[in-house]
Specification:
This protein is mainly alpha-helical and 190 residues long. It folds into two domains: 50 residues, Arc Repressor Mutant, subunit A (Orthogonal Bundle), CATH 1.10.10; 130 residues, Tetracycline Repressor, domain 2 (Orthogonal Bundle), CATH 1.10.357.10. The protein has eleven helices and no strands.
Length: 190
């Protein structure tokens, strides 16, 4: 069965998104071309534009989906450090989404669906910070920025293989938990 056959009884939007995520994962967002994605899906070069309008629309759809996936990953985290671990896991499990979500120059930043998805994922972080005991933070906004920076920076270093040596035989979860304990609790000895 050719890819053209699978399109006719499948979901072109999903097929283009999946192909785009594969390209981003292996070559980065700069390698994306709607024409190439149409060829991969076995449809006319104009077909993806029906769903995404252009490359920026496609990347915005990927970022929107990424924020929704992140929201699901962070939901019901019992504490802020667990939310951070889940953030890192999200980045590892969805590296293509992660590459696109935080690059506003690739996206339509005023897209209503993207704005709503970003608000939902931010609300999960805010809720994790709000769950901290009152003596743990005097400024929830700054605490949220610090926690996000730690998780995002760790995830970025992990995905770019800059932590391979530092991890040794430990899992990223173990190392991130020790890191957050050392930085935010002042004691990495657990």
């Amino acid at each position: 069965m050719s890819s053209r056959d699978t399109y006719h009884h499948g979901d072109l939007r999903r097929a283009v998104l999946a192909a785009a995520l594969d390209v981003i994962r292996t070559q980065g967002p700069a390698a994306l071309s709607l024409r190439d994605l149409a060829r991969r899906a076995g449809v006319s070069h104009a077909a993806p534009a029906h769903h995404f309008k252009d490359r920026t629309g496609l990347l915005t759809a990927i970022a929107t989906e990424g924020h929704d996936l992140l929201t699901a990953a962070l939901s019901d985290a019992a504490e802020l450090s667990e939310a951070g671990v889940r953030y890192v896991r999200f980045a590892v499990d969805h590296p293509a989404h992660f590459q696109v979500m935080f690059q506003p120059d690739l996206l339509r930043p005023a897209d209503p669906e993207l704005l709503a998805a970003k608000a939902r994922s931010y609300e999960q972080l805010r809720a994790a910070v709000a769950a901290l005991p009152g003596d743990r933070t005097t400024d929830p906004e700054l605490t949220g920025i610090a926690a996000w920076s730690a998780a995002h920076g760790f995830a970025t270093l992990l995905l770019t293989h800059n932590l391979d040596r530092a991890l040794g035989d430990r899992t990223p979860d173990e190392v991130f938990r020790a890191l957050t304990a050392a930085v935010f609790e002042g004691d990495a000895r657990e």
